[in-house]
Amino acid sequence: MTSSSESGLSVEQATHASLLDQVESAERELRSAAGRSVAQDGDLVAYFEALVAAEQKVEPRDWMPDAYRRSLVRQIAQHAHSEIIGMQPEANWISRAPSLKRKAILLAKVQDEAGHGLYLYAAAETLGVSRADLVEMLIEGRQKYSSIFNYPALTWADVGAIGWLVDGAAIVNQVPLCRCSYGPYARAMIRICKEESFHQRQGFEILHTLSHGTPRQKEMAQDAVNRWWYPSLAMFGPPDASSTHSSQSMTWKIKRFSNDELRQRFVDMCVQQAGVLDLALPDPELAWSPVRGAYDYTHPDYAELERVIRGDGPCSRQRIAHRRRTHDDGTWVREAAAAHAAKAAASRGTSSAGASSSSARSSSGPSSSSGPSSVGLSAAGAPVVAGSARAAGGVP
Ligand code: FAQ
C-alpha cells in the first residue's frame, strides 16, 4: 500500500483511490465481457462452465445450475436486507445531527442505503424471485441480514465509526463482488461500491473532526471505535474453516476471496488509517508480521457472531419489529404506486403493469411466476433498474 509520505496523499486518500481503481477496472472488465467469445454448442452445463472460466458474465437469459441460482438469491437477498436494515442505526441520529450540514449529509447517506437495497432486490428479481416474497422472508426471520446492524448507535461518534469501519468493511468485501460471475449483481455492485467509498470517507471525516477536537470529543470517538471494531471484523463471516459456502462460491466466481482473506485486508487498511485518525484499534495483539507481510490481529468472537446471526444480538428484535412496522406503514405507498402504474399503463393502451410483485416481465429473464425485472447497464455503465423494485415505492 502507498504510504502517505511516498505519495503526498493521506493514507485515507491513498486507500480510497486504490479501491476506486479496482472498481473501475471491474467496470472495464464488464464492458469487455459484454461481447461473448465463448461458443454455445448445445451442452448447457459446458456452456455455463465455459462462460465462468472465460470471465464472461452469466445473464438472466442463460441456463444456470439450480444451486448457482439459489446461492445467488441467498447472498443477494441477504445483502439487500442488510442495506435496508442497515439504515436504522444511523437514521437514529438524523434528528440529532450536530449541524445542518451533518444532517444533510447523513440524510443523503441513509437514502443511498435504501437505493442499494433497491438495486439488489432488482438484481435478485432477475433470478426469478419476487421482492415482496424476499421482504416477507426477512420480516418473518426466514432470511438473514448482516450481523453488524444488530448493534446500537449510542453516540454521534458511532455515526463516524459506522461510516469508517462498517462501510469500510462493506467496501473491502464488495469491491471483489464487482467481478462476480453473475452480470446483474456485478453491475449493481459497481454503483454501490462507488457510493460506499464516499460513505466511508464521510465516516472517516466525522471521526477525524472528533479526534482532533476537545479531549471529550476524542474520548467519544475512541469509545465508538472500541465498540464497533470487533463487530466490523465479524461482518466478513465465519473463519474459512467453518464457512459453508465459500469454496463453492469461489469456484463459481461469485466470491473471489475467502472470508479470512478479506478480513485481513480490512485489518491492514484500518491500521494505517487509524494512525491518520490518531485513534487506537482496541487490539493489544495487533502487530506487523514481516513473515506474513500483514498484521497479526485478534479474531472476533465467532460464538457471538453465531448468536447474533441466530437473532440474539443486542438490537435484533428491535430491528425486525421496526422493519415490520414500517413495511405495514408503507402499504398505502405500494398500493398508490401500483395504482399509478396501472393508470399509466392503461393510458398508454397497454395492459396494466400491476402491483409491486407483477412488474413488466423481462423477455430474457427465466420463466417464473414472479416476473423478474432487469438490471441492465446504461451507456454510462451505471445499472439501470427496471421493473417492480423501483416502482414499488418501498418505505424502509
Ligand atoms: N451476518 O458460508 P458463509 C453493508 C451467514 S452491507 C449475518 O461464510 P457466505 C452496507 C451466511 O449468510 C453488509 N450472516 O457464507 C451498509 C451463511 O448463512 P446461510 C452485508 C452471516 O455467503 C453499510 C452462514 O453465515 N454485505 O454493510 C454473516 O459464503 C452501512 C455461513 O457463512 C453483504 O451481504 C454475517 N456477518 O459469506 C449499509 C455482502 N456472515 O445463507 C448500511 C455480500 C456469514 O447458509 C450502513 N455477502 N453469515 O443461511 C457476502 O459477501 C457473503 O454472503 C458473506 C458470507 C461474506 C456475508
Structural class: mainly alpha
Number of strand elements: 4
SSE arrangement, N to C: HHHHHHHHHHHHEEHHHEEH
**What's the gyration radius in Å?**
21 Å
Major sheet description? 2 strands, antiparallel
Count every helix, treating DSSP H or I runs of 4 or more residues as helices: 16
Bound molecules: Phenylacetyl coenzyme A
Please state how the strands of the largest beta sheet are arranged side by side: 1-2
Shape: globular
pLDDT averaged over residues: 87
Stretches where pLDDT is under 50 for at least 5 consecutive residues are 1-9, 352-396
Q: Could you tell me how far the N terminus lies from the C terminus, measured between alpha carbons in angstroms?
A: 38 Å
**Strand-residue proportion:** under 5%
List the helices and strands and how they pair.
Blueprint (H helix, E strand, L loop, with lengths): L3 H4 L3 H23 L10 H10 L12 H20 L1 H5 L8 H26 L5 H9 L16 H19 L8 H29 L3 H20 L11 H6 L7 H19 L9 E3 L4 E3 L5 H8 L6 H14 L1 H17 L27 E3 L5 E3 L2 H4 L5
Antiparallel strand pairs: 1-2, 3-4
Helix pairs in contact: 2-9, 4-6, 6-9, 8-9, 8-10, 8-12
Bound molecules: Phenylacetyl coenzyme A.
The site of Phenylacetyl coenzyme A (FAQ) has 30 residues, from helix 4, helix 8 and helix 11.
